[in-house]
Amino acid sequence: AKEDKPDVSKPEETKAGEVDGGDKKDLSKMKVVALLSGVITDNGWNQICYESVKNLSDKYGIKLEYNENIAVSDMAEYIRTYAEEKYDMIIVHGSQFKASAEEMARAYPDSHFCLSYGFRVDASTADQVQDIPNLAYVGPVNMGVLIGAIMGILTENNKVVFLGGQDIPAITDIVSGIEEGVRLTNKEAEVKTDYLGTLTDADLAKERALAFINDGFDVISASANTAQLGCLHAAEEKGVYALGFNGDQYGVAPDAIVLSVMRNYPAIYEDVFLSIAEGKWKSGMVVYTLKDKGTVVSDWHGWDKKLPKEKVDAINDVIQKLYNGDLGDY
Amino acid sequence: MDLLQTIGGYLFTDIRMAAPVLLAGLGLLLMNWSGLLNIGAEGIMLIAALSAVAGSHYFGSVWLGLLLAMLAGAIFGLLFAVLTVTLRANQTVVGAALNILGLSLSTTLNRVLFGIETTVTKVDAFKVLEIPLLSKIPVIGRAFFAQMPIVYIAFLLVPVIHYFLFKTKPGLNLRSVGENPRVADTLGINVYRTQYLATIVGSTIVAAGGAFLSTGLLDFFAEDMVAGRGYIALAAVIFGKYKPAGIMVAAMIFMAGNVVSNVLQVAGIGIPYTFLTMIPYILTIIALTIFASRAVAPASLGKPYKRG
Amino acid sequence: MKVLLSTKMKTQGKAGVKQVIVSFGATVFALALGMLLIYAIGFDPFSAAVAMVDGAFGGKNAFGETLVKMTPLIFTGMSYALASRCGLTNLGMEGQLYMGALAGTATGIYVSGLPAALHLPLTILAGFLGGALWGLIAGALKVRFGASEIITTVMLNTIAISFIDYMVNGPMIEPPGINCQTQPVRSTAQLPNLISGTRAHWGFVIAIVFVVLFWLFLWRSKRGYEVRVAGLNLSAARYSGIHTDKNILLVMFLAGGLAGLAGCNEILGIQIRMIPEISPGYGFDGIAVSLIGNNTPVGIVIGALLFGAFRAGGNRMQIRAKVPNAIVSVVQALVIFAVVASQMLLDKWNEYQMKKINRQESEVA
Amino acid sequence: MGVILEMENICKQFPGVLANDCICFSVKEGEVHALLGENGAGKSTLMNILCGLYKPTSGEIRLEGETVRFNSARDAMERGIGMVHQHFMLIPTMTVTENCLIGDKEGSSIKLDRKEAGRRLKELAERYGMEIDPDAIVGTLSVGEMQRVEIIKALFRGAKILILDEPTAVLTPQEARALFKMIRALTDNQFTVIFISHKLDEVKEISDRVTVLRLGTVVGTYDIDQCSVEELARLMVGRDIHFDAVTRQQPVGDTLLEVNNLSLHREKSNEGKLLEDLTFEVHKGEILGIAGVDGNGQAELVECLTGIRSASSGEALYQGKDLLKLSTRDIMSNDVSHIPQDRQKTGLVMPMTLVENFALQDYYKKDFGKGALMNWIGVEERSAKLIQDFSVKTPSPYELAQNLSGGNQQKVVVAREISRQPKLLIAMHPTRGLDVGAVEYIHNQLIDQRDKGVGIVLVSTEMEEIMRLSDRIIVLYEGRAMGCVRPSETTVEEMGLMMGGRTLDDIRKGSIKETSVEEKMM
Ligand SMILES: Nc1ncnc2c1ncn2[C@@H]1O[C@H](COP(=O)(O)OP(=O)(O)OP(=O)(O)O)[C@@H](O)[C@H]1O
Ligand SMILES: Nc1ncnc2c1ncn2[C@@H]1O[C@H](COP(=O)(O)OP(=O)(O)OP(=O)(O)O)[C@@H](O)[C@H]1O
Ligand SMILES: [Mg+2]
Ligand SMILES: [Mg+2]
Q: Which of A90, B298, C316, D150 suits A137 as a labelling partner, its CA being 20 to 30 A distant?
């Protein structure tokens, strides 16, 4: 069970710099809360955030605090409650809460606000970010590129598909990087990306995935919370490759899931947490690129023996290159 | 030949997707024929979907999971019957509350039963049962004879329920309650018991539809995984003119909307996915407007019956 | 005549008080069951209850939150109640709410150069119309094709929500187009704050105004009288020359409009901009609100207060007692069951009393 | 002939009503036992207890000397008690066979054997001289046929004691005779029949013994030979009944309503017409009676005249306008009033207050509030006055209509319609189901209106009512007028024949033939 947990190895170069082992500050007194849009059992976006605060709690002994199912209209109220109590770190998990987070960050300068954000870094990104000293827009970037690169190697029919749940930033961010990623490893492959229109209807997702597989697509991955599990099921049933996403989902479909690609939020928020503790807090865009290891890849779970050796090597190679920045600034 | 193969594939998918809606529709049909209008199918299916996974997990057999799901459905049905039959409460309001209860209770219990794990608990699930020879028939063979047992059950229930409703004495008695409970009463039929039975049995069938969603195609529970199928089943009953075969056709037509969405998305014509999502619902509305006016509901559907 | 009016008020008042007491008792009973459930899944029911009450009424801010939650519920409760007064079942409040919010947002953003005194009313009108037209579709399908509004309204919910997803991600997305949300509505279209230091906004006042209009319409206007007659007895309506189809259209239009205002006010007072999930189920809660309120104006306000308090208190319950707020929905369902059950028991009792009174009178005569 | 059934000290307490008060009642095998009593005397209640639908508050039932306790209608049926209810208990969408098989427990198989059942039904029917098509959909049958289905149903299910609750209320005199013949055939075969009626002549004709109920108690049981019709009437009502002779002060005035060739087709036009070429006129200060057995087009005629249904052809000229082309609202606002046939289903909104019910026809007018709003204070004043004028028994104008007794409900409707000061009043079954006092009251109201010059169309199935009030009578049969007569110039027999489908001309031309036809029917 332990190995099913996402890899929480720290980013190699933490933005906050190394934690000084000699620091005597009692980190367990830090007050951290995660405010979530859905339930922590959604196998996706919210669960990974839960894992993050769980990780902090396990490692540093802070009190584990989170709230689920928060409606957009209620978020400001939740934030206010914790800000009033001078929480050190308030994780507002989802870009739909952007407005509330910005408003509250201005109102409560004593707390540090982390808005979990999904965004692509390009020219317009800066316009999205407001300059509030105690608000950081936190998230990994370029996950799609990594996923796409692996998919490009895996495909035999040169047809790969990635399905998002809904057109929301945390998902769009990934979807928009897929094609670029595939091109890094495969110039010919047909790349299809689209949205399922649901985050919960796993049956529908499975049928949709089957439709793609029947059309010859032989590598599939999806980002749609619980619904994505339906896509993984479809891959296993039809004997095509799949990539897990968010958590290490090998267990869901061991015969299909070659690797899982994970938002490394546990490590990211550990990093941010330490930066607050260290007084090295950074506001604004706090993005974790592939180089920063904002995205991690799971264990092979034996697939490195099952796959043709050249594919395994190619995948290992491209991951390494992406992490090193050899293929561009991802 | 290739085209035929493709059509066979669509049919295969359509039948499989129609099965849960069909089951829910058949369950609702029994309730409707007893004069009760239950819009709570969505909630019943949700709690059943969870129970099926729980049963399959704890007892290690998907069939026992199905049994537990049906039991959960029966309990919801009993609750509905107590409130609407005995206390004569507004059936729509109670149905709506069942939906709220099904959604929230399944979410809560899911957590209690399975805790918080990144990977879902895998349980025993239904497997495809190929019927020898028949499944080899070209084009339609796989569509009809290489499905999961619960799909066969759903479709076999169509003639069974038809036979029950229209060819047996208990079926006639049930229909008489839905048409005119007072008449049934004067003829010695226990109206309340009939309505209770119809609701409980009907709810277990609806629940089987819910169980299919979590342990048929899949092997886990997800919050709100029913995603409107309970309501579509409700429409299927009207569209199917309160006959099992009609419901079967309706379920297949409505779910064909999803098949169309799949095909359009795979074809990549560039229709925004939000519009693809709407297709089955728009199809349902159109179908209803064309056929609803000709549907003859049981005469006392939705009206509470007061004895004496 | 004064004597008669006073007897009327007495009998109606008494019935009203009895209704409230019984509903209240049922609610308490359901809450107790809920607490039991909370205990059963391993939380402390006492601290949950304290947090709940504290979150709903413990202080200005808490009460402000309750008002914020009440506002859309008053509208959706009226929407359901109005339709049921006409014998219709409107389950489409959620979709109508979204369409109203969308129309209001569009007007709030794209109409410019107006002073607040014009822009705000115009935006609210647009919100009303957005919901109203969406409701009218179901009405028209019923009148023209006999399609059951119970089903069409539910289908229209899903369609509306998908449509909103499309609009917010497409044509109306805030430039440059990264976040799926629209621009904020212009300040001239925003509803001012009602109680400073809280989020309570003037939408609440508008809601109360509409409660009065709702009452005026149904019980004081000629059209409202028609609607009620048609809702209670279709045959009597035809007999007296009431155009029932026209009334169905009108009522679905108005009911949709009321739900639309729920969404529009939420935008103009709280969200400021359109996002795909502005309603945490206010539409469906409207059914329960109107049920508890017995389809009466004061009752709806009380019902909305109860469910508003649930939502505000439920948040606090999660924060303080760590009880997952899905439990709150379970409790809400239990409240509905308890209230319908108690109402039926009360009806039976009233029936019995009435017969007894009749008997005594006939004996005297 | 031994006693087959005894009911001892039966009491039935409804909330607020003691419907049966210590009733003792016994029936001999093979007899026709009539139950006689005014509306509300408790006849139906007693029989509902006997057939297992209601449970008595106290008392016991003995069948062939053995005490029985019925928990449902099925229990009673198993002991051979079958009831044909006042309102038919049939499901119109099902076939005759299906209707007979509902709740049937015969045989161990759960399969419905329609063929076998149909055969047995036919056999039964033939044995007692009835004709029946087992596969016909009940909804398509005539009232008389439906009644036959009801009786067959009871026999089919093994009834030995057959209860008929007001079976003749909806039949033509001829159909009633056929029914009586059937009853005789049954009693000849050791069936026992309990026969409920208000109609003294019928009771006298068919029954062997009679039990009279009054206000929930038994007045007595008598051999029919021992009492005259007059005696029975006195026993039933507790006083002598005298309808005041209807006197008229003024002569009939000018023509008010002129109906020419009014026809109404069925939805599928090949299925015959609901109304065919009706031509008649109504004068000011005249009551035109429309007689006929229920379901012969009366309801449709009224619906056409009041704009609720649109006629297929013809015209109805009233004050220079054609009513058939106007909407209900337009007709009613032209000084037309309408007392509908069913006060509870149509005339009143039961869950509304009396005040609100008094506004039903005129709420949109200025007197009821200017502009869009109602002036309820004004309506209340008006209501209070009407309640007083028409002596409606109610605790307050804000009482709900559903809490009034039937008679008082009807008074509300009549008060509302008359207070509108109509020129034309269309009244359908204005006294149906009311007791003698209320009937008298409403009759007097109608006569008052007539004397004020109002033209009245009175639709009724009560022969007595029609004969007493009308100036002229038109008899409808299957949508056609069989003839128009003055009450003074006709006989009940003639009326009965017209109601049975013979035109006045035929009857008067061949009065010898008439008897032969009747002989055949017998
Ligand atoms: N279900 C009931 N609940 C309450 N009161 C009832 C009920 N049924 C009958 N009653 C009352 O009991 C009394 C006797 O009614 P019943 O129907 O037996 O009269 P009836 O002699 O059959 O009259 P009719 O000639 O009108 O058929 C009436 O006052 C009636 O209002
Ligand atoms: N369905 C009902 N709901 C409530 N009360 C009823 C109902 N039916 C009858 N009652 C009550 O029972 C009493 C008797 O009713 P019913 O209609 O038999 O009148 P009645 O005694 O025959 O009077 P009338 O002679 O004026 O017609 C009434 O006072 C009425 O309030
Ligand atoms: Mg009566
Ligand atoms: Mg009777």
A: C316
